[in-house]
Amino acid sequence: MATTLLLILIYFAFISLGLPDSMLGAAWPTIQLEMDMPMSAGGFIAMIVSTGTIISSFLSGKLIEKFGTGKLTVISVFFTAFALFGFSFSNHYAWLCIMAIPLGLGAGAVDSALNNFVALHFAAKHMNWLHSFWGIGATAGPIIMSLQITRNDSWQLGYLTVAIIQIILVGILLFSLPLWKKYSDNGSKAQESVEKKRQSVFKLPGITPALTGFFAYCALEATAGLWGASFLVHTKGVAADVAAGWISMYYMGITIGRVFSGFFTAKFSNQTLIRGGMGIIALGAILILSTSTAFLNLTGIILIGLGCAPIYPSMLHETPVRFGKENSSSLMGIQMAFAYIGTTLVPPAFGVFSDFAGIQYYPIFLLLLLVLMFFGNEKIHQVAMKRLQTQKVKI
């Protein structure tokens, strides 16, 4: 019963994590007009959030050791709630930039902490379902913002609504701390002797290809979502409103795909799901590269989303297998930091490239990132299998 309650809390925490992630894009057209700011100013706020997320992800291993997953989750959600309240009372661009700092710091810490907790203590299906709940939050965020702008002509009320949801969650998490402590204590005593022997994670065999895989995956996912509509409009002649709808199908493919991936983990290993996902992405990219048929282009976009679905959760869940449970908490944050770096840097870089070379190279660029991800994943899998075989021989 306690385990079920804890899982429900973790799922709700991931919904709350996804809620603010997509709200800025939905609110920015209104904020831009109201504050008389250039279009690029919204990107600067997003970069501040991403920078905070990267920093807290790098530090998450030490923070988990100091506070434990339960307390760190409470603190992190409080940070995001505080930031969202700040957004809701803001009438100045500078204040939005200031509030973006705690929003990013809170998001990165809770993301890393919960992913590490699930990877250590729960089956792979829960990791996939966890990230599908993030998709629910990311889908609901713009809906909440849209309703408040439409009904009350106020983007601030959109942020206030989500801030209240976050504060309620903070209260629930506070009451749940005994559950977290009890669950965490089960593993901590068994790992005390191992913790003393833990080596620097950056010296672990296979760390470079592992980080490369995370960087390449999130770069691909973000680039596919950001520039897909522009590619369809300028290269395939799809109407702008239709292209926007098709890209929403891309995100729906990721969310629904992760729900089904949770069931597939009963029959397939994480590595099989990762390879299968990459194969589906390749098929989708080839479809939109090689044809102008509307149905096949839409199919290609959906396939890329479906292919993305199992990869990230499966890679995260493999962390204790690849590097050992004693290194999981430190590595989880570092891996996610490199993932965020890919999300932050690569899509804008492709945008600059497209200004000079054209957006028609979009599917080729996705395939290049896919190749980089493939080699990183295969290399770390080989290293992990070799480590596990060596341990069995010693036993």
From TrEMBL:
Extract the Pfam families matched here: MFS_1
The UniProt keywords, alphabetically, are: Membrane, Transmembrane, Transmembrane helix, Transport
Highest taxon, organism lineage: Bacteria
Residue ranges spanning the membrane: these are 37-59, 71-87, 93-114, 126-145, 157-180, 201-222, 242-260, 272-289, 295-312, 333-353, 359-377
How does this protein sit in the membrane? Multi-pass membrane protein
Q: Which Gene3D superfamilies match?
A: MFS general substrate transporter like domains
Task: Name any one GO molecular function.
Answer: transmembrane transporter activity
GO CC, any one term:
plasma membrane
Tell me the ranges covered by the Major facilitator superfamily (MFS) profile domain, including all copies.
6-381
Give the family per the record: Belongs to the major facilitator superfamily.
The protein's name: Major facilitator superfamily protein
